[in-house]
Amino acid sequence: MRPATLGDHDAIERLTADRFRWMADRGYVPWPQSADEIARKAGHAPMWCLLDGDLLCGVTIVVDRLGTAAWTEEERQEASLLLTSTVTDPAQAGQRLGMRIASWAVDYAARERARWVRRVTTEPRLAAYYQAQGFALVRERVFNGRPLYALQRPAQRLPNPLGN
To answer: Closest Cα partner for 50 from 7, 15, 19?
Structure first.
């Protein structure tokens, strides 16, 4: 994993557009952002790239601020990192890229002295997938007429977080 740079924009936009098509073909609710909107965050937001050699195969944004829709005031005060805008290459489905990113984030959060790695989704299939990655469902509620799932996993140092 390495920080995204401005030069990653085109690769991130292609990767994200491919993922969005893959998700649409499987009936997932469309994301509120476009592929370009996510790609424009490269070099500006705390975005990280998962690489296979020189090939970009995943991205995620890691922030230290939690929104109010999913988290209580007490939870927002805890040292935590939130994974958002995580996208992996659908051409590499089955390679556990999402698990690699999640494991890296758990290790990274521990190195940054955070207590938790947290995620939020409105997609029940993603909530189930995140639970398979070791995230516990903290709460489910309805927000703006849609389900909202808040999940967390303790930060901890891992011996081989990327599973290489």
So the answer is: 15
Taking the C-alpha atoms of residue 84 and residue 118, their distance in angstroms, rounded to an integer, is: 9
Instruction: Measure the CA–CA gap between 118 and 80, rounded to whole angstroms.
Output: 7
Model confidence, pTM = 0.92
Beta-bridge partners for 27 = none
pLDDT tens readout for residues 76-99? 999 999 999 999 999 998 899 999
At 53 the three-state DSSP class reads coil
Strands (DSSP E) along 2-52, which ranges? 2-3, 47-52
How many angstroms separate the Cα of 129 from the Cα of each of 33, 55, 134, 149? 21, 24, 9, 12
Q: To the nearest 10°, the Cα dihedral for 12, 40, 143, 69?
A: 110
Residues 120, 82: Cα–Cα separation, whole Å: 8
- From the number of C-beta atoms within 10 Å of its C-beta (0-12, 13-18, 19+), residue 157 rates as exposed
